[in-house]
Design a protein that fits this description.
With 306 residues, this protein is α+β, with helices and mostly antiparallel strands. 26% of the residues lie in helices and 25% in strands. The strands form 4 sheets. The protein has a 7-stranded mixed beta sheet with strand order 5-2-1-6-7-8-9, sandwiched between helices. The chain has a 4-stranded antiparallel beta sheet with strand order 10-11-16-17. A hairpin with a 4-residue loop joins strand 3 and strand 4. Helix 1 packs parallel to helix 6 and helix 5 packs antiparallel against helix 7. The chain is elongated and about 65 Å long. The relative contact order is 0.11.
Length: 306
């Protein structure tokens, strides 16, 4: 079966590799254009584009699927399109090109967390179970009927990056199984059932930690925004990036945002019990351990995160 693969970030690469390894004829890859990365803003291919080039697969770079891009998809003559975190809408004209339609691997248990950041929003919300589904892509936001589902337990220390990495590999197996069933004429898609929730793309502001919130909520948010856009707070008007914090329910009480040492641990007060900082990156400096950062503060007890 001829497959068009659409995807952009690193979490989509395992699916591309799995389809190739399973023997599908991946005739072209649709991905976002090269983007400037690093301090020097060097134009860099997406992880999917780089992998497709290694595999010798034609790459279609597009920020928007317009008439010209649709014509290139038609020229590739795919029987089906598989899409994993492409990062753009697929219009009706392009949806109608493959005879088996477009099959999307989405990293949530739909209809929970429809949108661009399902794993991140699930962690912030404190979900214990998440997963992935394959579904038929429609013009609505993640509304199509579901082919297959897998579940994944959320571990207490999971960051969004770690959980996404696990789901990207298990999801690649699910996507391959779904396309195999479609090719064999044995796939059945059923309408979504359950409570709908939305997972809009994270902004920088989503990473700001509110020390008035309970420690549990702060910990969930910090893990949900790691690695991107990253957890942060402010000190004297300067933004400080933070890696995920540790819960310290038995530590001495502190006022929200106030810092103190407990042995070698650097604690911050919250709306409930304190949390322990792990690594800190002050503005313009490299990430360092919280203990190293604290040694650079004249009087830690006078430091208050805003």
């Amino acid at each position: 079966m001829r497959v068009l693969f659409a995807g952009t970030p690193a979490v989509a690469v395992p699916s591309l590799d799995a389809l190739v390894a399973a023997g599908f004829d991946v005739v072209a890859v649709l991905t976002r254009p090269d983007a400037p990365l690093g301090r020097k803003r060097v134009l860099t291919p997406s992880p999917v584009a780089a992998r497709a080039a290694e595999l010798g697969i034609e790459v279609i770079h597009a920020a928007k699927v317009d008439a010209a891009v649709t014509a290139r998809i038609e020229a590739a003559a795919p029987d089906v399109a598989a899409i994993v975190a492409y990062g753009g809408l697929i219009p009706r004209a392009a949806l109608d090109v493959p005879r088996h339609g477009w099959i999307n691997l989405h990293f949530s248990l739909l209809p929970a967390w429809r949108g661009a950041a399902p794993v991140q929003r699930a962690l912030i919300a404190g979900d214990d179970i998440t997963g992935a589904v394959t579904f038929r892509l429609e013009e609505g936001l993640d509304t199509g009927p579901v082919f297959g589902t897998l579940t994944e337990a959320v571990r207490p220390t999971d960051t969004a990056g770690e959980l996404l990495d696990r789901l990207s590999h298990s999801g690649a197996v699910l996507l391959t199984q779904t396309l195999s069933a479609v090719d064999a004429g044995k796939a059945t898609a059923v309408p979504q059932q359950g409570v709908i929730s939305l997972a809009p793309k994270l902004t920088l502001e989503d990473g700001r930690l509110d020390w008035q919130q309970p420690a549990l909520a702060i910990g969930r948010r910090a893990r949900g925004v790691t690695p991107e856009p990253g957890a942060w707070t402010t000190l004297d008007g300067q933004r400080i990036k933070l890696e995920p914090v540790l819960l310290r329910p038995g530590a001495p009480a502190l006022r929200p945002g106030h810092l103190a040492l407990d042995g070698k641990a650097v604690l911050v007060g919250t709306g409930s019990h304190p949390v322990e900082l792990t690594r800190v990156q002050p503005s313009g400096k490299k990430m360092m351990t919280a203990a190293d950062w604290a040694r650079g503060q004249a009087t830690l007890e006078s430091v208050v995160f805003e």
